[in-house]
Fold these 3 entries.
Entry 1:
Amino acid sequence: MGLFDGLLGNASRVDPNQAAQEYGRLLAHGEQVQAAYLLIRDAFLFTDRRLILVDKQGMTGRKIEYHTVPYRSITHFSVETAGTFDLDAELKIYLSGSPTPIQKQFGKGVDVYEVQALLSAYVAR
């Protein structure tokens, strides 16, 4: 991830195997990380069963909140691609019972179509 993208709040892609090693304690038996993204200290992982949001809090990042979103609770999502002057792509995920979406931004090096395809495959089940 480029430092500039991180400072702007844009996520970058992480090797799924590396993410599985780092966050392996969060995974259920047999659960596989399909894709992972890093946003400065925070991360979000797409597994074959759920979406995991990792929120490191405070100055030291020692306090961590792990938020699990089962794919079945996602009612819809939107992907906005990067434009000429707007260099980042945006993902919005809407959950049942919540009017406010989860929003994440991706740097131009991230294939936002891959993210959209992952969500389509798991949400449409």
Note: Confidence is low (pLDDT under 50) at residues 1-9.
Entry 2:
Amino acid sequence: MTADSLLLERAGLPDDLRWLAEKYPREVWQCHANIHGIANMWLQRHDMFRELGGMLTNGIGDYREGRLTAREFARWFAPRLNHFLGHLDGHHNLEDIHYFPVFAKAETRLKRGFEILDADHHTIHEGLERNAEAANAFIRTLSESEDKQRFAADAYADENSRLIAMLTRHLADEEDLIIPLILDRGDRALGID
């Protein structure tokens, strides 16, 4: 079984890592005193990734359904894809290098959860690379036949769907691990304010 299929098949964090998520369910996050600062920033950043991923999915759908020409789509698509891929990769690097070690040290019972999230980042990075390759292959077909363009667009759409599915699972699991920890301890106690 491949790492991306494991991420796609995971229904959430293992039960032994959900004790803080049960103490601080999503329904109370927005009214909790510690939701300010890094927790709020984290949720906003994740919402941005969800929104950008949705825009890319909708954009490829518009092209495939004939609402955009290949050239219109490419002009619209390229800067958004680059923004999405670049910011997602940078966000994951910052988490892996700075935040995850701080969080794992602050609550050692969640260390395995941060190892899972770190492994997700590697899997998602591979998906980012496949996504970029499929996008570039599509853009290269713009001077070729419409059939080749459609085939390349379909290949990109498949890669995009897989990446968005992995990202959706990962973001939810990351939030279920990190936001309750921040709510429980606070930014300052964790040393991340």
Note: Residues 52 and 58 are 10 Å apart (CA to CA).
Entry 3:
Amino acid sequence: MSITAGSYTLGPESGRLLVNTTRTGLGAKAGHDLTIEVTRWRGDATVDAVNAAHSSVTVEVDAESFEVREGTGGVKPLTDSDREEIGRTLRTKILHTDRDPTITFRSTRVDGTAESFHVEGDLTIVGVTRPVTVQGVLTEGRVHGSAAIVQSRWGIRPYSAFFGALKVSDEVEVRFDIGLVPKQ
């Protein structure tokens, strides 16, 4: 299925933006692999179905809007209290949302076709901008894809507990599943 050239609005109304973390370290069995959803975000995509290089995308995320949706593994199931504590830690100790409330992505290059593409761009987290590549595909009228984010490249120290025996892996995966809504 192909996509029509034009401008599209992106956001939680039309799709999901998820962050997946994994655990490592000697105490990894005690922790959880997390699925975290970004609940407040917006973006714009311009699609040129003939020449992908003329396409672009921008996304802006409210860094306060990360909500833990699922925790797998671990010795005990993830509780609501655990979810709240993880959210608080994410906002105050990882993303420092008091000083950097927004995460942004701006494409610098788009390659491929509408059905299978990759987007290079600048990702700004905690005030630090680094390049990142997003892989994506269009299937059944929805855009799906992901990017691997190595936290330390942005100066983020991955979460650890129990004197470093339990750690969140430095690399997290950002995934998206979005229906493109034409701009009005």
Note: The radius of gyration is 17 Å.
